[in-house]
Amino acid sequence: MDIRKNIALLTALVCVLSVSSCSNKKPGSKKNSSSRSAGTVDDGMLDESVSSVEFSLESGFYDTDQQLELSAQGEGLTIRYTTDGSIPNESSPEYTEALTLTDRKNDFSTLAEHKDITASHDYSPPMTVDKGNVIRAAAFKSDGTHGKVTSRTIFVGIDRVKKYGDVPVISLMMDQADLFDYERGIYVLGKVHDDWLAEDPKNASADVWKQEANFTQRGKEWERPVYAEYILSDGTTAFTQDLGIRIMGAASRNEHQKSLRLSARKDYGAKNVKYELIPDNTRSDGQGNVEKYKSFVLRNGGNDCNFAKIRDPLLQSMVSDKTFETIQSTPVVVFIDGEYWGMYTLTEDYSDNYISNNYEIDNNNVVILKVGEIEEGNDEDIKLYSNMYEFITENDMSDADNYAKACDMLDMQTFSDYMAFNIYIANEDSIIQGNNWRMWRVRDADNATAVSDGKWRMMAYDTDYSSGIYTGGQNYDENFIKKAINGTQTFKDLDQPPAEIFRALLDNDDFKQMFILSLCDMRNISFEKSKVDAAYNDIVSVYSSLVKDTFKRFGPDYAKDGFEWNADGLKQFLDGRNKVFMTHITDVFKPGEKVSVTVKTSDSSKGGVILNTTALDLSDKDFSGEYYTAYPITVTADPASGKFVKWEATGCSISDANSPTATVTIKGDCEIKAIYE
Questions:
Q1: What are 445-462's pLDDT values in tens digits?
Q2: Residue extents of the structural domains in the chain
Q3: Residue 471 class from Cβ within 10 Å (0-12 exposed, 13-18 middle, 19+ buried)?
């Protein structure tokens, strides 16, 4: 055996021995009355009448070494436990005395030792990364039957507030072979890669993100069981659950830190995670917060993985009030089998269950199309898209009757806003290029909800290859409206590219007006400078130290000190985009005189204003934006505690000053005020 393997075995043994038996039991240890059991031994010997093991300590963070006592009610039971994340079996160590739990930072980093996890750059991570003690235990009878597994994660000596602030910690426990085994490991190059190289010697020279590996495989056969603990900043455990875990993403699967999808299934126990994983994540129908998740993603940042990791969460948060679907998120810190695995952005996961949980729609009636292929639904559902595509692209959309029929197939406002969003952020890998687009609809329209009408609607995701990511933010002056209209850049070869739908619809004056207003609203409201500044400062303050520590753990070398530079580049893009974007609209559409529009309310506590389709924040200042005299805007009263009385306006005319919704014809710089009583 070579010396490296000898060292690995020795240091791994030290790691296990760091959780040691101790003859001096701590008197008066408080027993944990909560079993929080999960993770059955998959050997057909489960006996649910056998009591679960009770722990004297809850999962969480402790300042000093701890003594952990295990106990189980019943005669003739033997407690067996593991410290490596695997499920205990009859060969696991027998618990006889209290376990001493210590700060494991300087223990050998077993998982970090694996180097066969990417076809790309080499990186040697530090071995002294944060670690916790993972203990999994079950009570066994003499005949081999056993009770359910109970698991805990005990962190010792980590200053939780200093290191992670208010960010939740997710502890994942699983058989390490499910990650790193040559044949079945989902995190490694593995056998799939070797077989792929053997097929054709030319494969070795392929771009790294195009190389096949275990970690590029998809489908349920590449899902593995995992146990998850979600530990809040106040030390409480929000939920624990057995789930399935897969590798997630496209090219970013080749990164050292890979994105992970976690799914609840009946096979593992509960069919949903019933917890508000993402704070203040309002349902798409506005009826409260999302309270359950079928699946969620621990996202590494995609294209932004080694840059700033903040692009997608920041950009999508700016348009979360739009009618197209957006993925909401929250930062978390992840440990796998007790070993620090960096910070991730926990995000929603699009699926038929996502639609069901956001709209109370039968998930069996949901169709989702992803980059030209049916993702949710039946194979024949592709005809629903093809029929729409062919009608819109093969008929004259300037004809009012044809456009009316198109409006029955596609939610035009959603589509218009979605296109404006991708254009504004200069998305280089989006619907404009034929990639990273989704749309959904109900198969059979029943109008049970506002979106059960059978119209296609857009779903935003994976926006990282945008906003100047590879230019330091210096491409903010690039006119993406021209790119979208001219179709000069295509990455994905599709038979029916949806960008052609957009180009056909621009022949219709009503859609063109809607789209120009969508572009104006994107700049004036969604990405209004003070709103962007506040959101940017908030996310940087949370992500900065977390991302830096993640870069130290996963590399590459150039990323270690790159967070500030990359975050600054994003801010430069957003600042510059705000300054020049109206000139792009003017250059392409020549929509008449550009003027300033101010919107006020007589008392923001009594009510606000919806401009076109977006509610304005008038809580501490008036709204000011730029629009064109050629295109009227719409204002709608948005009462709070008061009653709408009328509109007052100067420099423009109101279609009906007493109507809660009115059309505003702009004549020059104008001011509109909503009066409440």
A1: 999 999 999 999 999 999
A2: 3-263, 355-587, 592-676
A3: middle
